[in-house]
Glioma pathogenesis-related protein 1 isoform X3 (Trichechus manatus latirostris), 176 residues
Amino acid sequence: MRATLAVTAWMVSLVSCYSYTSTTLPDIENEDFIQDCVRIHNKFRSEVNPTASDMLYMTWDTKLAQIAKAWAKTCQFKHNEQLKPPHKLHPNFTSLGENIWTGSVSIFSVSSAITNWYSEIKYYDFKTRKCQKVCGHYTQLTKSETKSNVTTLFSIQSGRYTYVTDTPLSFSLLVH
């Protein structure tokens, strides 16, 4: 099923913490970047096999972008603990989770980050619905109930940066 939800979104924030200027990485308002994120995310979601009959289509939500940007400004390479309490950061979503990708600015692309998460499919057992190794990024990306993604890019001292996705969910997220 392809359902576009007005309150759901795929959002992108960009914050420079230390060594890189905001012009080094794509900006939160860059339409091409936003469309790329939405398109690639939905592409991977549409390729899930077995096919989900109730897979939701991602769109954009400004409030989630602000939440992701605020967290990115802290320049901490860890999950945001404030995402756990229901409705704490966003009134429309009971649960938020994160995927984090880190790497060199020179090799970043939206496609490579999302492909990296999706590649964890090899560790997911569809029969038991459990991970043999780390595959929480894959399950986060492809759960049909996932309603929205917020992506944040920020650079850190070493010239590496992190790509974070906060996702409203209708279930408890498995994170590592």
In short: The chain has one domain: 3-168. Residues 124 and 131 are 5 Å apart (CA to CA). Residues 31-46 form the longest helix (16 residues). The domain at 3-168 is CATH 3.40.33.10 (Pathogenesis-related Protein p14a).
